[in-house]
Design brief:
By secondary structure, the protein is mainly alpha-helical. It has eight helices and no strands. Helices cover 75% and strands 0% of the residues. Helix 1 runs antiparallel to helix 3, helix 2 (33-49) packs antiparallel against helix 3 (57-69) and helix 5 (92-108) packs antiparallel against helix 6 (112-129).
Length: 171
């Protein structure tokens, strides 16, 4: 995950014309969480100072995801919220991914109602996109949210929907 995020961020920074001191960015930075967190902190400063939010929405989304992966959900959620706000209305795939990550982040912070709201916004996008894989992921995440709220009947229903889709897809 970290190496993929690194290359994608590097390409986005270059395209946006930011000076990212490429010499400091290398694959070894992603060999452990502490180095990834240090890189994320530096990138976060650069992204926050960028003038055009729409241009850097993908970088904010990737950095937000990286921060979630390195157990920094508050910082990651802030960037994902900014990226979602700047997301072009026609980019349903990007919105779907960000909504799912926002739900995961809020679930990690122990805010299941907020998490559920994001997953419920993501579910129709997954269905509209015809992506069985994303629909399964969102249904599962939504089920986990209901389970954490002790709404076991609703959680079971969502898990069964995810399982039925997985079986249809041959998984």
């Amino acid at each position: 995950l970290f190496i993929d995020v690194y290359w994608r961020l590097l390409n986005l920074y270059t395209a946006a014309g930011l000076d990212i001191k490429t010499a400091r960015l290398n694959k070894r930075l992603f060999s452990n969480t502490q180095r990834a967190q240090a890189l994320a902190a530096q990138i976060q400063v650069d992204v926050q100072q960028a003038a055009d939010p729409a241009t850097l929405a993908p970088a904010r989304a990737l950095l937000g995801t990286l921060l979630l992966a390195t157990n920094q959900p508050r910082e990651g959620l802030q960037l994902l919220e900014q990226a979602l706000a700047a997301q072009p209305s026609g980019d349903q795939a990007g919105s779907l991914a960000m909504l799912n990550y926002l739900g995961i982040g809020y679930q990690a912070l122990g805010q299941p109602q907020r998490a559920r709201a994001y997953f419920e916004r993501a579910l129709p996008l997954a269905r509209a996109a015809g992506s069985a894989a994303m629909e399964i992921i969102v249904l599962n995440n939504l089920g986990l949210t209901y389970r954490s709220e002790a709404q076991f009947g609703r959680a079971l229903d969502l898990f069964q929907q995810a399982l039925a889709l997985a079986r249809q897809a041959g998984d």
